[in-house]
Amino acid sequence: MSQHPLQSAAELLRLIHNLIRLGTIAEVDHGVVGERPPRVRVKSGELLTAWRPWIECRAGTTRDWNPPTVGEQVVMFSPGGDPAGAVVLVGLFSDAYPAPADLPTLCRRLFPDGGLFEYDHQASVLRIKLPGRIEIEAPGGTAWTGDIDHQGDMARAGSYAQDGGTLTHNDVNVGHDHPHTGVVPGSGQSGGPVQ
Predict the structure, then answer these.
(1) Which of 54, 71, 119, 147 has the greatest number of CB atoms lying within 10 Å of its CB?
(2) Cα separation, 141 vs 127, whole angstroms
(3) Where in this chain does the entry annotate a coiled-coil region (predicted)?
(4) Are strands 54-55 and 47-48 parallel, antiparallel or unpaired?
């Protein structure tokens, strides 16, 4: 028995309407690595989807992890118009979550604890602002080119070697060529470095 033409048209319109829909994240399941993939449920009008995957920037041998948050605005793409097979594209700004900058010269990522990564390509400056600490693990070492301006205490373990330049403490030369006062031949000790 064939469908009534109006029923077929209504079904076709429903499928077309569901191909691409706007919505917001209603729930997030971060998954369990190796057991259950991460997924979200999306609220779009009266529709609350089943658990569906979201689209990350990379998900191959190079993989990203930046899960969406509840209330984030998204786009759902439903192949064939069936939301049960939808994939979710995150990253639409909204009144609830506005853009973290309005300058064309900035590339910025803002985190919920106030942490910030920012590259200003007009000033050629990379800025990192964190409420906590930075941890770097690099068994091969780190290489710096350029001056370092450090404020705060420093604790270190291991040897220290300096090649060239000067070494001062409170504007007093304490490098390899610093002179001393009160030098006496023999086994006596010299005075402190010359001011």
Answers:
(1) 54
(2) 22
(3) none
(4) unpaired
